[in-house]
Amino acid sequence: MTSEADLGPRLSRRLAYLLKRAMVDLDTLHEQHLRPFGITARELAVLLFLDGREPESQQQAAAHLGVDRTTMVGLLDALEGKDLVARRPDVEDRRRNVIVLTDTGQATLRKAMRASDAAERQLLAELDDREAAQLRELLKRVTSGRA
């Protein structure tokens, strides 16, 4: 692990560096924990978004998630190839397709959520429960209205 002495105090205290470092570490942990389920953290985010919602088009989902349309098509193609989501005609407008979780997608989501929770706990192991909750709340405040 890199220390403040290795980086110097000017870099090691910069918010951009700290957030990036935390994200890189969390991505690595997610990769390890999600590997058995054959999905990535980005794919998990899509499954989480779709779960329990009224079906939406891929364009609507992309807009909500802040993902460009081309990237969203790639994510959905990969998830569909794993039988985790399906594109279905919209019952109200058959010209439009909506994205839904499959039964396999719902089962995978439940297992992957536990794995993701374990990755987050591992990242936040130096914090107690109150500090971890406070960090989440502070980050939500900082990012509210920007998504």
TrEMBL record:
InterPro entries: HTH_MarR-typ, Tscrpt_reg_MarR-type_CS, WH-like_DNA-bd_sf, WH_DNA-bd_sf
Pfam family, any one: MarR_2
Coiled coil regions in record: none
Keyword Transcription regulation belongs to the record: yes
Keywords assigned: DNA-binding, Transcription, Transcription regulation
Domain HTH marR-type: 12-144
Keyword Transcription among UniProt keywords: yes
PANTHER family given in the database record: TRANSCRIPTIONAL REGULATOR, MARR, TRANSCRIPTIONAL REPRESSOR OF EMRAB OPERON
Protein name as catalogued: MarR family transcriptional regulator
Native source species: Conexibacter stalactiti
